[in-house]
Amino acid sequence: MLCWRMRDTLPSLGALRAFALVAETGSLTAAAARLNITQPAVSRRLRELEAELGVALVRRGANALRLTEAGARYAAAIEEGFARIRSATEALEAQQAGPLRVRAYTTWALRWLIPRLSRFSARHAGLQVEVVTSTAAVDFARDPVDAAIRTAPGEAPPAPGATRLQAVLVAPFAAPAAGGRRRSLAGLTLLGSRVRPADWATWFAAQGEAAPAVSPLVFESTTLAIQAAVEGLGAVICSPAFVTAELRRRQLVQLAPRAVPTGDHYWLLLPPTAPRPQALAFQSWLLEEIAAEREPAGRQRRSSIG
């Protein structure tokens, strides 16, 4: 009975490459030139390969080499293998060299990420960053993104491997001319956001008060609500970090000394398997940025993301 056993080892890559080039060019000299080695070195690799396999791969004539029948079959199989290796290598290199694609909420991207993004770009010069906005849950198997910023209630990770970034803190803000100088919500229209509809209720609950049933003005995003507050339409509830520019320009004033936690946290989500180096670099940078902005323990961070 015939018994066939799979080889535990393979011929050396150098020998296989030398044979493949000899088969392609029909010449030891041409193969040596392609490999940047001497012709005797190619001949030696070829003899060693034949000895290891126990079969003649070429017929050596006075002026040329010809493949044996076994050699022709082996050369075709080897070239197919090398082609697959080349294809896989090119695909891997393209993946590693491609842009970093980040999905985030519009307000977080516009008002927290973009003002800081130059520091990430300076550290990773030449890396293209693509920022896309969406409120939809990310599906890394379907969506062409490397990292996603999400909010979730509590402290339990919303997905395996998710990295907690920061608690979501909110406070009310209004334009000085709209009554913000009084540092009071009295008489101000409460501007709502469809993305975070519960923030006003959370704020009033923290003050021990009942929130109005509805906000008279509701916007698609917190960014729109912030702009409405700047225009004097009322008070917006959001993270202090989202209005640092408006506070600096005195377009808005904070109507309470401290922001309150909403119970939500921001999380960074990466693909559960084999995240790209660009995504890991982004993760490291985000954590450094947030750590650098922390104030001494016990003090409220005005720059907390929310």
Automatic annotation (TrEMBL):
<dbReference type="GO" id="GO:0043565">
    <property type="term" value="F:sequence-specific DNA binding"/>
</dbReference>
<protein>
    <submittedName>
        <fullName>LysR family transcriptional regulator</fullName>
    </submittedName>
</protein>
<keyword id="KW-0805">Transcription regulation</keyword>
<feature type="domain" description="HTH lysR-type">
    <location>
        <begin position="11"/>
        <end position="68"/>
    </location>
</feature>
<dbReference type="InterPro" id="IPR005119">
    <property type="entry name" value="LysR_subst-bd"/>
</dbReference>
<dbReference type="GO" id="GO:0006351">
    <property type="term" value="P:DNA-templated transcription"/>
</dbReference>
<comment type="similarity">
    <text>Belongs to the LysR transcriptional regulatory family.</text>
</comment>
<dbReference type="InterPro" id="IPR058163">
    <property type="entry name" value="LysR-type_TF_proteobact-type"/>
</dbReference>
<keyword id="KW-0238">DNA-binding</keyword>
<dbReference type="GO" id="GO:0003700">
    <property type="term" value="F:DNA-binding transcription factor activity"/>
</dbReference>
<dbReference type="InterPro" id="IPR000847">
    <property type="entry name" value="LysR_HTH_N"/>
</dbReference>
<dbReference type="InterPro" id="IPR036388">
    <property type="entry name" value="WH-like_DNA-bd_sf"/>
</dbReference>
<dbReference type="Pfam" id="PF03466">
    <property type="entry name" value="LysR_substrate"/>
</dbReference>
<keyword id="KW-0804">Transcription</keyword>
<dbReference type="InterPro" id="IPR036390">
    <property type="entry name" value="WH_DNA-bd_sf"/>
</dbReference>
<dbReference type="Pfam" id="PF00126">
    <property type="entry name" value="HTH_1"/>
</dbReference>
